[in-house]
Structure formats: structure tokens, C-alpha cells
Amino acid sequence: MKIDPDVVLWSAPERERAGRPLLVLLHGYGSHEGDLFGLSPRLPLAPVIASVRAPLPENGGNAWFTLRGSTPGDPPKANVEAAADALLEWLDTLDYTSVGLLGFSQGAAVALQSLRHAPTRFAAAAALSGFVASGDHPGDAQLAELKPPVFYGRGTVDSIITDDAVARTEAWIPGHTTDTSRIYEDLAHSISSDELTDVAAFLGQHLR
């Protein structure tokens, strides 16, 4: 599984990326790299933004891990780990001063799994309408010591992410991250303007 560098959407040409932090956007299931990239005008100006396409074609778009044969909100940990590995392998090809992640739904799961895989690598992560993969991870102990900043946001009427996945995530995040958690009234499986304002402020604080 690999990320295709040729379809990454960038907010700046290559000559303008050196010496700046990097913010990577990770879309949700059945979507594409153009989805979250549309939020770029509302995000901080300091980081270079890179919006990547998930590696697996599925459901008319792309996915970070298949939903076939798995329980919603509780995919096999190996599938989420493979997606995080692909992201980290792609990041190894880039030059940046620091890196943050903004993931939605499946992309949020990949963002949190990437933190578990490489606890010292990320300046911050925002996980929106997503969840942390089930089970323990070798990186959890170091994360619990470092507690990197994480923004976790969800809506009260999100019918996609299961109650079990929400409960698992809300139990895991405080013990492993310095968390900023927000719950948005009447928000479904989406990103509201208020949430985007909060996320932009969080990322602007940690990616300078």
C-alpha cells in the first residue's frame, strides 16, 4: 500500500515549501484528496498544506482501509496500521520543519494510529468525526509520556461512528495526548463552521 505522490494537492509550489511546517489532510471513506483541500482557505497560513489520496479504491472514491468484512468503527488493527505505514513512508520523502495531521472519519483513525506508530514525529493532530483503532499499540506507552497535542471533535448526531468507537476514543485520548476535545450540538458526520474555526486556532497554535 502506497500513497501516490502525483495526486497530492499542495497549497504552495515546491519552491515555496522549504523551511515551513507541513499540514497533511487525510480524507474520509469513499472520498478524495480534493475534499478536505477545500477547507484550506480557513486553515492557518504558516504551514504548507498537502492533501493526499487514500491508497484503496472503494465505494466510488478511495479508502484508507476497506469496510468489507469489518465492523463499523472497529476495523482490523492491521488494516489501520498499514494505512499509517503508508503515510509515514510518504512523509519520509519530504523535507519540513514540523508536521501536523488533520484527519476526518477514516482519516482521523489514520492520524491517531500514525501518532501511535511514531510518537515523536508529529507536532499536533486533529481527529474529526473519527476514532482510535482498538487494542493496545507498542507506541502507547511513549505517547502517554509525551502527550502530544490532539484536537478531537465530533457531533452529537453522528450516526456513522458507533457508540463503542466513540467511547473507546474518549477513553484513550486523555491518557495518551494533551487533548482539546469538543462536542458540537446537532452536528452529523460532517465538519461545521464552528468546528473548523476551533481546529484552525488549534493548528495555528502548534504549527508555526
CATH superfamily: Alpha/Beta hydrolase fold, catalytic domain
CATH fold naming: Rossmann fold
Mean pLDDT: 96
Number of strands: 9
Cα(first) to Cα(last) distance is 31 Å
State the assembly state of the protein chains. Answer: single chain
Give the overall form.
Answer: globular
In which range does the helix fraction lie? 25-40%
**Uncertain stretches:** none
Q: Whole-number radius of gyration?
A: 15 Å
Write the element-wise H/E pattern from the N-terminal end onward: EEHEEEHEHEHEHEH
Give a structural overview.
The chain has 208 residues and is α/β, with parallel strands linked by helices. The protein has one domain (5-206): Alpha/Beta hydrolase fold, catalytic domain (Rossmann fold, 3-Layer(aba) Sandwich), CATH 3.40.50. Helix content is 32%, strand content 21%. A seven-stranded mixed β-sheet has the order 1-3-2-6-7-8-9, sandwiched between helices. A two-stranded antiparallel ribbon has the order 4-5. The model has no long low-confidence stretch (mean pLDDT 96).
